[in-house]
Write a structure and sequence with these properties.
Helix content is 19%, strand content 28%. By secondary structure, the protein is α+β, with helices and mostly antiparallel strands. β5 and β6 form a beta hairpin. The relative contact order is 0.19.
Length: 193
């Protein structure tokens, strides 16, 4: 029985080169398939479009999502696919409340209350203001149905979110996943707190 080295000795340089190329092509195809499966079922990379999540995330940031086995929790930053108004692509928002929780928004005090407790929101960099009259129909109080979430942008004064009746509470089936890290630009690379 001839061993591998003996078999290769009987090959011409052209045949050996083709075998090497075939081996590397197989390895590349398998790596691409594994990468596609990971990004399809485990996590995804999504781009942030707009300023509604500043200062946490900026327009153009590329973020990594946890998709598989994810259950929305209060304070998580999530990506949604629910189209509303002029928005039809993925949107990034923060989960303010989950099913069964009661949300109350007080524009005079600039606070959001969930189940009677004012949220501490260190990620905001300016006080929330009342939307201009007639700009949109706003929700100021709601009990979130089971299987749904109430979301808001961190840049409250420049965010279309669950306060807008066009979006309202969001069925959890529209959630692509939770943002776990910023991957681009490299200057912002890191896990999301």
């Amino acid at each position: 029985m001839m061993n591998q080295a003996g078999q290769e000795e009987g090959l011409t340089n052209g045949q050996a080169l083709r075998l090497d190329l075939y081996f590397w092509l197989q390895a590349l195809v398998m790596a691409l398939i594994a990468l596609i499966l990971v990004f399809t079922f485990v996590g995804r990379v999504v781009g942030v479009d707009g300023s509604s999540m500043e200062p946490t995330l900026r327009d153009g940031d590329m973020v990594l999502l946890q998709s598989i086995g994810y259950q929305p929790r209060q304070h998580d930053v999530v990506v949604l696919t629910k189209p509303f108004g002029k928005v039809n692509g993925p949107i990034v928002k923060r989960v303010i409340a989950v099913g069964g929780q009661h949300v109350a928004i007080d524009y005079d005090a600039g606070t959001v209350t969930v189940d009677g407790e004012i949220l501490e929101e260190p990620y905001l960099n300016e006080a929330m203001e009342r939307p201009p009259e007639g700009s949109l129909r706003t929700i100021t109080e709601v009990t979130v149905p089971e299987g749904s979430i109430f979301v808001m942008g961190d840049n409250r004064n420049h965010s279309d979110d669950s306060r807008n009746e066009l979006l309202g509470v969001v069925d959890e089936r529209y959630v692509l996943g939770r943002v776990i890290a910023v991957v681009l630009p490299l200057s912002d690379f890191g896990l999301l707190e």
